[in-house]
Amino acid sequence: MATSHESSGNSSRSRSMSDQQCQVMCYHGEIAPLREVKYNGPTYGKKFYGCSYWPRTCGYFKWADEVHEIRDMQMRLLEKDTEIAELEMEKGFLEDKIKRLKEQNLSLMMWLKNCRLKTLRLERDCMLLKLTRELFLVWHCHGFFSCFMC
Question: Which SS3 state, helix, strand or coil, does residue 31 take?
Answer without folding.
Answer: strand
